[in-house]
Structures are given as structure tokens and as C-alpha cells.
Amino acid sequence: MATKNGGFVALLLLLSFLLSSPLPARCDAPLPVNVWPKPTSMSWAEPHMAVRVSSSFHVVAPSGNAHLLSAARRYAALLLAERYRPLVTPAVNVTAGGAGAGAAGRGAELGYLTLAVSDLHAPLQHGVDESYALEILPAGAAATVTAATAWGAMRGLETFSQLAWWCGRERAVLVAAGVRVEDRPLYPHRGLMLDTGRTYFPVADILRTIDAMAANKMNVFHWHITDSQSFPLELPSEPALAEKGSYGDGMRYTVDDLVSCAGEFWLPDASDWPSRLAAEPGAGQLNPLEPKTYQVMSNVINDVTSLFPDGFYHAGGDEVTPGCWNADPSIQRYLARGGTLSRLLEKFVGAAHPLIVSRNRTAVYWEDVLLDQAVNVTASAIPPETTILQTWNNGGNNTRLIVRAGYRAIVSSASFYYLDCGHGDFAGNDSAYDDPRSDYGTSGGSWCGPYKTWQRVYDYDVAGGLTAEEARLVVGGEVAMWTEQVDAAVLDGRVWPRASAMAEALWSGNRDATGRKRYAEATDRLTDWRHRMVGRGVRAEPIQPLWCRNRPGMCNLVR
């Protein structure tokens, strides 16, 4: 679900660069300073120029949108405080002209950036116009962001901030001059799924993650708040869920009148995998035959849709484990009377889906509800008009099955977008390790291994192999951070900058103007962007030694 933090570090932050004067374009050549994700179109007049930023720099924003006004103040402060020093010193000339009064002997300075927005009241929802245009005139005489919506203007502010850097020689903040940017995203849904059901993350870590998403022009924070391991969300109508289900002293998830196989050992017979009670440790599934299930479900849907105004409601539906329901006495009697597990799931989904739609939401489910071989529902229970399916198995094959069935698709293929993969398994007492060769394969001891490098993430085409008509049903993608082996101490490094790779691929694509994959060109830019993110307090992992950045191309496999 999309969310936003305090002053509007919003899930959907849009930045827009308008450069309207006719200047020479260098679309594919390396630039002294780069923007991530790479804009749709950006040119920087030669010789490359920069202008000093005034110590009183401010953003002139139209009134009428509190989020935009807050963003204007935030980015003005960031520009003056960031002190970002590029890893490679930009080769630019400092202009002698600019907007605003300059200090004596220092030449003119850029004193302000103007925002021009057509629609200040467009709501922050799926499909909102995120386009923008940015122009910084050659002599720094003026800087303008033009956008259709406030959210697009915010995208432009982020781009503007990335065109600025601290110059020690000048003892000043410089910003590129003679720049034109026209920009818009390829896909309307560019997200990160964070699992807080298995691991609790302090609010500060979640907000920092959302801030980093905004800087990467990602726009959907899919908050996987609950799972079988914990229910940390306090809901007004069902306080017992958090009281009994959240992590903490004396708190256990023991609602036995609601849940099948709750608290039982997940793998009663290690030699009989199909009989398992859960996909992993932490057994428990709602019992669709229990009447109270539907009372609680209704309360949860009503409360959550009241708490979060987003137009999507993710209803889960993945990895229904037959062994759990088969072990429940009431379900055993139901099956003996001719019932099936698929009908049991459809009973639950058929009750939940209309409730979600009645709250003016589009229901999102994991692909399993339709594609699982053992337990699934019919298409009539999840009409394509009100349903989006999120795919995570079998790469492009399952995406193809979903769109050919008429559904919109969010792509989160585990083979490309699961950021937790490749770190081994968390289940203990595993005799497989008695064999020293047991993890010599490519899986790294992980069901979805190997580890997904940034290049693997960047290279994936979410609509690859689809016809043009089928591709239109792909609304975008999400990288997924499942947290069986992740907590706040390692969160940033596990997510960033690999999530940045997806952010660019879904914003402006992963190919250059000739159609060739551009990961070779992206390497230095991502190293620079990771360096800036670290300076902003995001503990992103490095992707290469600094030696490589100082010697472009020398660390490639092919020159």
C-alpha cells in the first residue's frame, strides 16, 4: 500500500526538470554530475557551466498545497546543508552571471528556484501525473521547474538537488547551469515491499527508507505489516490482535478461536514436506469455517482502509499451506462432506473482495490465488476490473499468465527482485550442512538464491516477452525485502543501492537511445548516487572499489 511520512516524504515524490531554451544536447555522453534515476531527456550545454548558489537560496512555490510548500522548504535547506563532494571532481566553469545578488568579488549567484504547477490539488494516487520539466539557464539567470501536479514538481526538486554539489575551491555550493531536463516515468507503480511482520523496525528506520525511496523517485511503499509471526498494527476495533500478536514481553499470538494450527511446530514430519503446516516457521492460517473470522476480517478491512487513504488494498493470499487446514478438525469434517480446499479459499476471498471494493479500493493479491496448483480460486471471485495480481514466481512466465487472463500485474519476480535471497536459510538444526558440499551450488543455501546483484535487478525487463497489448497491463514492479534475516542494523545495506537499480529501470528504462542495455554506463552513475545517499544518512552498500570509479571502464569485463 502506498504511504507517506510526516511533512511529505511521500511515497510518490515527483521531480521535474524543464529546460526550454535550445541548447546542444549530449544525451548519452558522460556528464560532470548525474541524476539518478536517469531522466528521460537531459542536456547540458557545452562548455559545461555551473553557478554558485546563494546562501539565502529559496524555492518559490505556489500556495495551495501544504505538501509542496513543505517540500520547497526541505529541498532549499538540503541544497545548502548537504555538502556533497563528487567522487570525481566535475570539470566545469563557474559562470559570472546569475539570478539574485552575489557577494562582493564572488560574481552573481542563483538565489531561487521557481515552481510552476498546473494542478495543485491532484490527489496522491496510482496514475497521478509525475512528469516535470526543469530549466537552469546558461548563466544561472533563472531556474524553473514546471509540472502538471505538485507531485511532479517534487520530482523536479529532487532532480535539482542532485545537480548541486559542494566545491571546496570556490567554498560554495554549485549547481549545473545550461541544463534542460524533461522527464516522466515509464511505469506508474515503482515500489519497495518491506516485511515488518517477521521483524519489527522502529518508525525512524521506516521513515528513512521512505525518504530514500522518494529520492530514488519510487512511489509505492508496500508495507507488509503483518504475517503469521506477528501482528504489530493496533486497530481500534480489534485491539487484541496487536496486544496478543505483536512482539514484546508477555505478548503472544494465541487467538486459537480464529486460527488453524496456531503455535504448532511448522514441520511435524521432515521426511514428508507436503504435510508441513506452513511455508516456514510460524504456523497459523485463518479458518474460513469459523464465523468470527469474517467479523474480524470486516473490522480489519474497515480500520486499515480508514488509516491509509491509498487506492490499493493488498489482501495477501499467498502460500496457503494445505497441511495446516488438513490438520484442523472442523475442516476435516468439511472435506469429508465433499468440500475442497480451493472452495474453502474461495469462500474467504469471496467474502473479503466485495468488502475491499465497497471501500473504494482495488484489491491486490499475490499470484497464488489464481495460479497455485493445489489451492486457488476461480476468476469470478476476483474480477479483473477490481483486481491486480502481484507475481513472484517463474519470472516472466507467470507475468504472462496473469496478463493473458486479463489482470493487471505488479512484477516482483523472486528471480530478480527478491532482495533477501542468497543469504542462506534461517531454519536451524539443518543436517544438510553435515555435507561440506551441500551449498556448493548457485543457490547459496537459499531457496531463491543466488544473491541478486544490482546488475541482475537493473537488467530485468518486467514486460519482457509480452505483446504491446499485454505489456499495457503491467503497471510496474516492486523489489521485496523479506526480513527473516534482516533487522534495522542491516536494512539499508540490504535494500540500497539495489532498489535504486529497479527505480531507474522502471522510471526511464534500462536501455540507451539505440536500444542497448546500459548497465555498463550506469555503473559509475550508481556509484556516485550511492555516495550521495550515504551522505544523506542512508547506509547503502558499495558496488565497486573507489579505484574503479577513478578509472572509468577499467573494472568492466569487456572494454
From TrEMBL:
Residues 1-27 form the signal peptide. Keywords: Glycoprotein, Glycosidase, Hydrolase, Signal. It is an enzyme of class 3 (hydrolase). Its EC number is 3.2.1.52. One of its GO terms (cellular component) is membrane. The active site is at residue 319. InterPro entries: Beta_hexosaminidase_sua/sub (IPR025705), GH (IPR017853), Glyco_hydro_20_cat (IPR015883), Hex-like_dom2 (IPR029018), HEX_eukaryotic_N (IPR029019). GO terms for biological process: carbohydrate metabolic process; glycosaminoglycan metabolic process. Residues 187-251, 269-509 form the Glycoside hydrolase family 20 catalytic domain. Belongs to the glycosyl hydrolase 20 family. This is Beta-hexosaminidase. It comes from Oryza barthii.
